[in-house]
Amino acid sequence: MVGYNIDGPTRDRVMKLIEEKDRIESEIRDQTAILESNNVNMHDTLVDSEGFPRNDIDVYKVRHARHRIICLQNDHKSLMRKIEEGLGEVYSDFSRSNVNTSTSQTQNSSLPYYTNGHGLNNSHDSGNEQQCFAVVGFVHDGSPADIAGLTENDELLQFGSVNYNNFSDITQVHNVVAHSVGQRIQVKVKRDRQVLSLTVVPRPWAHPGLLGCQIRRITPS
């Protein structure tokens, strides 16, 4: 996949947002590791049966990590919205720059698909547009799916090794998740007119499940 070779302030601003998003995700992983090293999650009690601070964990570090994770998750969600808006501007700039172009040219991307984030693909101009096989339902705040940038109504084009051509049952997606705990899964979704490339890491979190979102197959009309 390629993006579009558009230079200028919009591209620079989006790239800086992407760098900041990656930094935040790295810090979230670091703070989550503190909770995991103490064998607690975001909601486990920090006091014993008598109401005293537990002596089997570092209560101060756990409290600080929880507070920091909440702050970082809020910052992350805000950044993701700004990145999506910026990518939409890049798409519009690209469309305008090609209004008077008589020949179509394939260009290497200066705004590439990147690890753990979004990419932009002009799927409308492709004769081999990928087809969706499933759709994302609800997404819990603070879940691995939420941190990865998945949102409700995203249409799945690819989930790890699963795509439209080899998809037969939603259990294929469940199997990919179950065998990829703590590992990165490359996910491609269609959102409005954009194709986004994301990376989700299934892991235990504050609630049941490894993703914290619903994925259901698309029923042919």
UniProtKB/TrEMBL annotation:
<dbReference type="InterPro" id="IPR035269">
    <property type="entry name" value="PSMD9"/>
</dbReference>
<dbReference type="InterPro" id="IPR040815">
    <property type="entry name" value="Nas2_N"/>
</dbReference>
<dbReference type="Pfam" id="PF13180">
    <property type="entry name" value="PDZ_2"/>
</dbReference>
<keyword id="KW-0143">Chaperone</keyword>
<dbReference type="InterPro" id="IPR001478">
    <property type="entry name" value="PDZ"/>
</dbReference>
<dbReference type="GO" id="GO:0005737">
    <property type="term" value="C:cytoplasm"/>
</dbReference>
<dbReference type="GO" id="GO:0070682">
    <property type="term" value="P:proteasome regulatory particle assembly"/>
</dbReference>
<protein>
    <recommendedName>
        <fullName>26S proteasome non-ATPase regulatory subunit 9</fullName>
    </recommendedName>
</protein>
<comment type="similarity">
    <text>Belongs to the proteasome subunit p27 family.</text>
</comment>
<feature type="domain" description="PDZ">
    <location>
        <begin position="116"/>
        <end position="193"/>
    </location>
</feature>
<dbReference type="InterPro" id="IPR036034">
    <property type="entry name" value="PDZ_sf"/>
</dbReference>
<dbReference type="Pfam" id="PF18265">
    <property type="entry name" value="Nas2_N"/>
</dbReference>
<dbReference type="GO" id="GO:0005634">
    <property type="term" value="C:nucleus"/>
</dbReference>
